[in-house]
Amino acid sequence: MSKTGESVKDIRQRCIQALLNRNWITKRDDPELFSYIRAQYQDLRDWFGEYCGFALLLNRQFAKLEKAPGRAQPWMGFDSFSEPRDYALFTYCLWYLEGKNEMDQFLLTDMVEEIREYLAGQDVFLDWTLYTHRLSMARALKQLKALGALVAVDGDESDWARAGHEHNVLYESSYLARYVLRRFPRDLTTYDSLAAFEAGTYPATPEGQLKKRRHHVYRRLLQEPVVYDRQWDNEEERYYVRTQRHTILENLANFAGLEGQRYREGLLFYYPEASGEMYLFPTGRGVSDIALLLAGELRRMLAREESGLYIEEDGRIGLTIAELEGIVLRLKERHKMLWSLQYRQSRGSELAEEVLAHLEEWGLAGRENDGRLWIYAALGRWNGDYDVYGGDE
């Protein structure tokens, strides 16, 4: 038992959840958790290596899990970035920082000029007199500061973004800058697609392919809100999940604290208790409340034959955007007094689009190119209503 009364299992789960959800754990910022990871390093390293293919880095200053997605998703990017140029400049800032030692100081204007000159040699042209280019660089720099890879000693890049060279910033390099990018098994220039990144490098042997399949399955189950049987890449992965479900359930419960169960639509997991380490559904945003209300309304509609709704064999419910908008408008009329001003004033089309985007982000809905919408089976595990409101149910 620890000083706080936690068991070794509880501490290990806390370490795993932190390593999965944080960029790193530093000794300076979280000395207790860092000491726990150091004490359980071998068990953590072996588990992540065996089941996920993730490397666990540990030195005197920090611990970092070298994560890679089983399947890249749009929400896996930086929330503060709004266009590809932000990511490109973020990468070239890291390139610039490679030439700096820890605590080296430099000016923003020197940094951006060196990056501009280097890119010009690659026939890529930046113009710092353009506000959009400066704004992209400012977003990249803010993200590096948030990660702890860069320290602003004096000044703010937002002022430079607004007014250009009239403002400057004095930065200091951090040792963490060298560890932002994960290590790759081969030269980056040899990858020709995103799928090649996701596939990884495994021997073309039965043992190598089994390891690849196991890593891919565990990565997706740990990193995505939900993975349905039909969403696995091939029949071999579906077969692995079906035949190894008891091992998967036991592993993720004992090590990661994830409770799971086999349903018709797939193997679904949830965290039994909320944790500050994770961003869970339902979120604290008002759109999550509306999504839960939608789940309850769909349940009631399915009980009425005249609604015309029915559940497909794989558990999905098909809707048109007009039907979703109509349902959301009914919910608005019924519960609007409990909604924020933003949602009370939203048009039906805007509200339906926001709810749909939220459900898509959490793997609870999807849309096809022909405009058809699908509400996925996992949403049916919720049934939302307001306890304090005597509606007309």
UniProtKB/TrEMBL annotation:
| Pfam entry (one) | DUF2398
Q: Which InterPro entries match?
A: CHP02678
Q: Which NCBIfam families match?
A: TIGR02678 family protein
Protein name (Swiss-Prot/TrEMBL): TIGR02678 family protein
Query: Which species does this protein come from?
Result: Desulfotruncus arcticus DSM 17038
